[in-house]
Design a protein that fits this description.
Shape: elongated
Number of strands: 0
Distance between the termini: 38 Å
Radius of gyration: 16 Å
Length: 121
């Protein structure tokens, strides 16, 4: 459910001609894309890990799902006044997803190692 809610938030902000102007005036556009799409990939990886898929499968599928969503978001922005649809933004979103998806598995693995170390005799 968290990835769906997150995608709805992205869709909402993508539907606005100038979302959060106070923020977008001071923060680089690609940084915002990094937060959005690495976060979405992380949430997808978390959801997939909850379905007991391997970590590698979770990373690959989360990256692909996020990339597809990024493509649909860029297409959607084509129809929003004062917004543009840019293949470079989609590529940036996909690259950010490729960093966000493994982030969950790395943090998860470190937590598991820490827990095992803490409970070991």
């Amino acid at each position: 459910m968290p990835p769906v809610v997150y995608m709805l938030l992205i869709f909402h902000f993508s539907s606005e001609s100038n979302p959060m102007p106070q923020l977008t005036e001071h923060v680089w556009d690609k940084l915002l894309h990094t937060i959005e799409y690495s976060g979405l990939a992380l949430l997808f990886a978390r959801a997939l890990a909850g379905e007991s898929v391997t970590w590698l499968t979770a990373i690959i599928v989360a990256t692909l799902l996020t990339s597809v969503y990024g493509a649909t978001d860029e297409y959607h922005q084509f129809f929003v006044p004062l917004r543009s649809s840019d293949v470079r933004d989609w590529l940036a979103d996909t690259l950010r997803a490729a960093f966000g998806a493994p982030a969950y598995t790395i943090v998860s693995a470190r937590r598991a190692i820490t827990r095992k170390g803490a409970t070991a005799p």
